[in-house]
Amino acid sequence: MLSKVKLATLKESGRLSKVPKDKVLFKKGDSGFEMYIILSGAVNIYANEYSKDIPPLVILKNGDFFGEMALLEDFPRSTTAVAQEECLLLVINKVNFEKAIKDDPGFAIKIMQSLSNRLRLQTKRYAELEDRLCTKSSDSEKEDIILPIEEVPQVEVPNTESIKYFSTTVGDKPELTFTEKTLKENFFPQGHVLYHVPEPDPYKNFIVEKEKECPACGTTFNTFLVRHSKLNLDKIEDDYRMVYKDFDPVWYSIWTCPNCYYANFYEEFPKKLHSYHQEAILKNKDTLRRIFNPNTSEERTIDNVLNDYYQAIQSLIIKKEHSKDLGKIWMRLAWLYKDLGDKVMYEKASLQAFAYYYDYYYNSGTSSQKEDQQLSYILGLFFLKFNNPTNARKHFLKAIIKKDGDQRINDQAYDQIQDIKKAEKEASS
Q1: Is position 128 within any domain?
Q2: How many CB atoms lie within 10 A of CB 2?
Q3: Of 67, 82, 103, which residue constitutes the final position of a domain?
Q4: pLDDT at site 178
Q5: Looking at the structure, do residues 195 and 324 belong to the same domain, yes or no?
Q6: What angle (nearest 5°) sits at the alpha carbon of residue 220, between those of residues 214 and 225?
Q7: C-alpha distances in angstroms, 233 versus 204, 236, 333, 394?
Q8: Same domain, 196 and 94
Q9: Of 68, 103, 138, which residue sits at a domain end?
Q10: Residue 43's beta-bridge partner residues?
């Protein structure tokens, strides 16, 4: 919630708008060009379309703001906003929003605190999902878990309550430093161990050393780039993992700066960071050096690879990236744990990937028909994994797009539906 002083300052950046009760301010999927600050009244936020029969996800009141995500990400609206009663709103467009963040760091801090609060809510609800998915019952009592799409997706993230990336201290100066204990507790899941598996010798034939510049600290360092022209595709697995002969690109998908420990997928690495993202990463580099045990030897092991992925998770959370990107990381961690034969960590990473993909699919809105089709199919596979054929079939049906859809996915989804029907028929006979 914004203070009266902060509101008075921001009024110069926007325009006042009086809206009547039940006015739909925007719908999920709409393009977003403005954010809103409530000066009086209340606004209901819905996960999908507005209906008086469905309770809102949250009710926002005086001093609260909403709609900022569309301006930060340039993506369609992820929720629907409706005036619960007559409201007076301060409306700020994208240009003035960016200017307000640049001119007033305190406003940027409030935005980040709001995002942190939402993540805490998602964490709480994710715990409920995990209980429902993992609770074992006898065969006679087992029932399908049906997740209504109106539910807020339950996404597990590191404990933002204890981390507090942007907690306010004296003089509204943001405190961006983690403790070593907090990092250990939040960035390595229980069960994470060292495997001491060296890089296979043939891998060296598929990589080339390149000099890159870190977008966080500006350090120039050497890293490895995959020579895609030398890759020989063997097969594509159901979860879209591409399996190549004699090489696994997953070992080299993440680049990590050896100075500040900023990490991300190599294709995302060159993108420029906001100044407050840079500050947050640089504030923590000494602690991260102790936690992640940088590789000082020439021999690369699977433990270095896993470290890179967990460092990327930390970097993306600081940047408040899409749950899709975090799902992508956890999916690859699941693949690596599966290759290592660690069933427990494979299950944990798979559940994390599912939660983040589910969040992105139902709350953020996919960016294209192709992405929508792929995620529908992947979620169907996850529901099958969790012994939930009802929701699996629903998502496989969504993945069948006859016009301009990927025919391979159409065929795979159709085959999965037939397999479910066959299993149900055999179970009832």
Answers
A1: no
A2: 21
A3: 103
A4: 41
A5: yes
A6: 75
A7: 17, 8, 21, 31
A8: no
A9: 103
A10: 60, 83
Asked if residue 109 is part of any domain, the answer here is no
**What is the pLDDT, as a whole number, of residue 32?**
80
Q: Which domain holds residue 418?
A: 187-428
Which residues neighbour 181 within 8 Å (Cβ) at sequence distance 6 or greater?
none
- Spell out the alpha helix ranges (H) of 40-191: 68-73, 94-103, 105-134, 160-163, 180-187
Report yes or no: 263 and 197 within 8 Å, Cβ to Cβ: no
pLDDT tier at 422, thresholds 50, 70, 90:
very high
Place of tokens 């079939």: 393
DSSP 8-class letter at 416: H
C-alpha 141/C-alpha 250 separation (Å) is 40
- Who's near 186: CB < 8 A, 6+ residues apart? 158, 159, 162, 163
Indicate if 195 and 51 belong to the same structural domain: no
Residues 217 and 320 in one domain: yes
- Together in a domain, 271 and 414: yes
Token output for 91: 């409306």
Is the same domain home to 84 and 231? no
For residue 293, tell me if it sits in a domain.
Answer: yes
SS3 readout for 239-255: CCCEEECCECHHHHCEE
Query: What DSSP element (H or E) covers 382?
Result: helix 369-385
Residue in 372, 363, 416 with CA at minimum distance from that of residue 392 = 416
In a domain, 91, yes or no: yes
pTM attached to this predicted model: 0.59
Q: Which pair of structure tokens corresponds to residue 94?
A: 């994208």
Nearest to 166 by CA among 109, 123, 207: 109
323, 301 in Cβ contact below 8 A? no
- Calpha distance 253→265 (Å, rounded): 6
Place of tokens 């420990």: 261
Residue pLDDT, tens place only, 49-76: 787 777 787 888 888 888 887 776 666 7
Q: Locate 151 and state its tokens.
A: 């539910």
Number of domains within the chain: 2
Helix%, strand%, coil% for the chain, nearest 5: 50, 15, 35
